[in-house]
Each structure stands twice: as C-alpha cells, then as structure tokens.
Amino acid sequence: MKWALGLTALAVLLGLPTVLSGYAVTIFVLIFFYAFLAQAWNIVGGYAGQLSAGHAAFVGVGGYTAALLLDRGITPWLGMLVGAALAAVLGSIIGYLGFRFGLRGFYLVLLTVAFAEVCRILASNIDAVGGAVGLYITFTGNPRQFQFQDQRAYYYLALALMLLGTGVVALIERRRFGIYLTAIREDEGACEALGVPTFKYKMLAMVVSAFLTGLGGTFYAFYLFSLQPNTVFGIPLSVEIIIRAVIGGAGTLLGPILGSFILTPLGVPISPPHHQARLAMTAPEKRTAPAPISNRPPTRPAA
Amino acid sequence: MNVLAQQLVLGLLIGGLYGLAAAGLSLVFGVMKVLDVAHGELIMLGGYGAFWLVALFGLDPFAALVLVIPLALVGGGLLYSGLFSFVVRADEETRVKNSLLIGFGLALALHALAVQLWTADERSIVTPYGGAVIMVGELAIPLVRLLSLLLAFLLIGGLHLLLARWRWGKAIRATAEDWQAALLTGIDVRRAYLLAFAIGTALAGAAGTLVSVGYSVSPSIGLEWTLKALIVVVLAGLGSMIGTFVGGLVLGVAEAASAAVFGGPYREVVGLVIFVVVLVVRPRGLFGK
Q: Rounded mean pLDDT of chain B?
C-alpha cells in the first residue's frame, strides 16, 4: 500500500512537466529544492534535535566553490562534490565546537548563526570571491556547465535532489544510526549512560547534513545564476530551510517535503527579488512593469 | 595615536547603547528562557516612535523617552500575550524552535510594515544641539552620544534597582532562577513573564530612541541590532544587568579597536569571534551566575 502510493506519487511527479506551464514548473523546482534543503537539515535538526540556524553557510560554501571552480574550467558536476565536501568540512568544525563543548538549545543556534555570519562577512569583503557584489554565472546553456535550455531539466534535477535527500534520510531512519539520533534527541543523558557514542553520532549527522546542503548550493548557484553573500549566507535563508522542516514535521521522513509543498507556493508572490527574476522569465502572461520604487522624499522634521 | 584614541572613545559611546540593547534581551532570555530574535526590530520601532514624536509634536528627543517607554511597555505586554505566552512553557526543544520561528516571523513582519509605513530611507532626529562637541584635550566627544551613554547607564542602573528592590522585581528574579520553585512559593509566574517581556520591550524602545538621536534608524537595522545584543548577552552572561552594560562597552571598544587595526569591514567580525570563543570557553559569560 505504502509502496503503491509512493510509486504513484513518483509517476505523477515524473509526468507533470509535460502538462505544466513553464511558470508552474519553476514553482515546482523551488518546491523540490527547498524540500531537499529542509530534508538535509532534518537529519541534524530534526532527527538528532540539534538545532542549526546556520545552514545557509553550507549552501553558500557549496555554491561559491562550484562557481569559482567553473571559472578555472572545472565542471560543476565535479565542483558540486568538492563544494559539498568543503561544506562538510565546515560542518565538522561547527559540529566539533558545538558538540565537544556541549552547547545545546539556543547556544548551539547562536554558534551556528555566528559561523554563517562570519562566512557572509568574509565573502562580502574578499574581492577574489566577488566581494559584496557576489558572483554571476554567464548563461551558456551547456549541460556540461550545469546549465540547460529546457526548464524541465532543472525540474528533474531538483526532483532527483529531493529524492536523494529523502532516500538518505530513509536509509538513516531504518538503521542504528537513525535510532541513535532519535534517542539522542529524546534524552541525551540516558544515551550516554547506555554507552551510545553521542558525540560521534551528532558529528556524523552534522557532516552528512552539511554535505547534502552543500550539494544544494551548487544547484542554487546554477539555477539562479547569481550568488550574493547577503542572500546565500544570510540568516533568512537558514530560517527558510528550518521553517519548512518544522511546519511539515521535523524528525519525520515526509515532513520537510510536506512543509515545502505548503510553504513554497505561498511564498512565491512575496519571494526575494532574485527568485522573482527567475519566475518572471517563465511567467505565463506578459506582466505589467513593476511599479517604480517610490521617490517620495523623506519627511524630515523642521529642526 | 589620536585617531585611535578618538575611535576608542566613539566605540565606548556606542558600547553604552549595545549594553542597553542587550539588557532587554538578557532580561527576557534570563526569565523566559526564550530568545526574542525580533528584539532589534523592537529597537527599530522605538527609534521610529521617537522620530515621529519629535517630528510631529516638536518634542525634545530625550523628553520623548517619557512617552516611548510607557508605549513600549504596553506594546511588549501585548506581544507577550499574543505570541510568546504560547511557547514559554513548552518543552525545551519545542520552545527553542518555535520561539525562534515566532521571533523571526515577527521580525520580518515588523520590517515589512516599517518599509510600507515609512519607506526604506534612513532617518535620524535632528536637534539644535545635535552638532555640539565637547573637547577633552584633542578628543572630540559628541554631546548627544555622551548624553545617550549616561542615559543608558541610568536606565540600566534603574533596572538593576527595580530587580533588586521591587516586589515584582524579586518575583521576576525568582522565576528566572527556578520557575517551579517560584510557583510553589505562590508567585504568579505568568505575570512575572509578562512583566519581564514588557520591561524588555520598554528597554528596546529606549535604546531605539537613543539610536535615532545619536545615529540613525531605517527599517533594516533590526537584524544588526539583534546580533549586537546577542553578542553582548553571550559575552556578559545572564543574571547581571550591570555586567550586561559592561559587556556592551567591551564590545563597542573591541569593535573600534579592530576597525582601526584591520579596517572597517572587519569590525563586525571581532564581535562574532568573541561570540564563538565565549560560547565555547565560557558559555555562561563573563558575569554570568
């Protein structure tokens, strides 16, 4: 029954692009992509209950690495793995500091936020990685460069990412690893007393989660063609990721997907400008030009 | 040498505001064990409140505090009853997660509201004495910022006395220490939460007023002030308001020193480095109990 439902859902998702408009495909790409990020967060934030509010750092590291490597002629298909590996290294540093020194709850949140902010400030101030302007990727439409003329290619890629993330979580959930993580979330002290190496498993959860999120960073970069420090390393992106997992159900296999299906379409009309640009490219009808930004002079007091 | 000294003096002056901004956050975090990440947005609103009181009624900005603080008290009470009262007694994991998301949602909403109402322009209060400077040797000390530092100190001192002497101040401290024990001794814990949150918001309003006088406000300053306040809260630790004020001064001076040594863009980094080091080495902070 469960399998039949899953396979039907998969068949529907595989077939959807043939009937959907370009605009709807774009929305689905965003749904899958955020579901994937939320699923990656779910491993450490949901199952292990170790709240990270700095996952944007992994998206940024992954995306920047792949984009910079492309400048040196290395295909993003490889750069994706390098970026994810670097994100995993960053994850292990954050995890080591956080877990070795026993930071929990809000204190772990603050540590992860601090790391993401440091990454943001560094990326904004180092000219070799584009500085505050960030990096722009020229569209070539060459699949070797992770770029596609056809919207549907992105659709299937994002779907594949989401399935990959969900597959990894499903595997973890069934194994000892997943059971340890849930146990750590429920009662860490009891776990330690029973001889569960909690530090090791929390680290593993963080590293796997960071690696997957780093993969997502490459997709982000080559789907939106721009990386800006304030958006890819920013706190708002981390919150976007968490909120999907939490609304759908953190620590459950399908929660992040459900959360993304609920929240991503809701967010489309008010999504950040770089998403708007992407959506406008595929908008169904010609839209009227956006209203000019108000030029009303600021009212200042007559001192 | 003089340039460095001047930088440090300016760092000390803004440090007082960091301390004031952090005091409200620290009180709320200490008592409710809930981190209000919309604190910076409350500071922003306080700044706009003062700005409009000055612009529309021609009040003196420091006198406007007399109106901003009670308004913020009421606003804080409403925010607590409407939003945070629902998470404060949840179990730890839910409380951390949900209060963060509530706070962040509130921050986004307030930011968007401020942009809609008042545009994204930067504004600051202009006073006749705004340009006045006191010269000490070769160091220039802006009068308005000096007054702000003094006021911040007075407000935090007042809060310290309030918590030490007032009946409800003691109730708030008891709740912070152990809410179950406080409840058993007959303290209305819910009211202590309400009071702590309202006072925290009032402090944010006061900090906002001082920010809009000595510096400037715009709808997007919220996140930055939240971060500064968080750094100070972690640096100073919970439980001592005077300690929080000192923590603010330390951060202000450290930022100024690092800006002078490494260059402007890296002034933000020193705070974050302090943050990480304190979290790892001494999570209860310098003055934490």
A: 88
